[in-house]
Design goal:
Elements (H helix, E strand, L loop, with lengths): L15 E2 L2 E2 L4 E7 L15 H11 L3 H15 L5 E7 L4 E6 L3
Antiparallel strand pairs: 1-2, 3-4, 4-5
Helix pairs in contact: 1-2
Length: about 100
């Protein structure tokens, strides 16, 4: 893959296999097309797959994943087009839409 940058480490991370972590938190995605000028942020280093895997390493539940994803995008930018993320754990499910800007 293409090197896009580095993010800060956190004290605790969790095991991830595919799109699920050791707490049965799972994140999937569906791409959608929006306005082209919103497709990417200048200098952004967090694409959709990096966002999924980094969140799975840092969150135990779907509810915890939402602010983690939002914080990563706020801090590092979003380098993908429109995505709908399906964020599920054994107790609840959330949907989150993101577009590059």
């Amino acid at each position: 893959g293409k090197y896009m940058g580095e993010i800060d480490e956190v004290p605790q991370t969790y095991n991830v296999v595919g799109n699920m972590n050791e707490f049965q938190l799972s994140i999937g995605e569906t791409t959608f097309v929006g306005r082209s000028e919103l497709g990417k942020q200048s200098g952004a280093i967090m694409d959709y797959m990096s966002l999924i895997h980094t969140t799975l390493q840092r969150a135990k539940t779907a509810r915890e994943a939402i602010p983690i994803m939002a914080g990563l995008v706020e801090t590092y930018g979003y380098a993908s087009s429109g995505e709908t993320f399906s964020i599920l754990d054994p107790h609840e499910a959330w949907f989150m839409d993101l577009i590059g800007k």
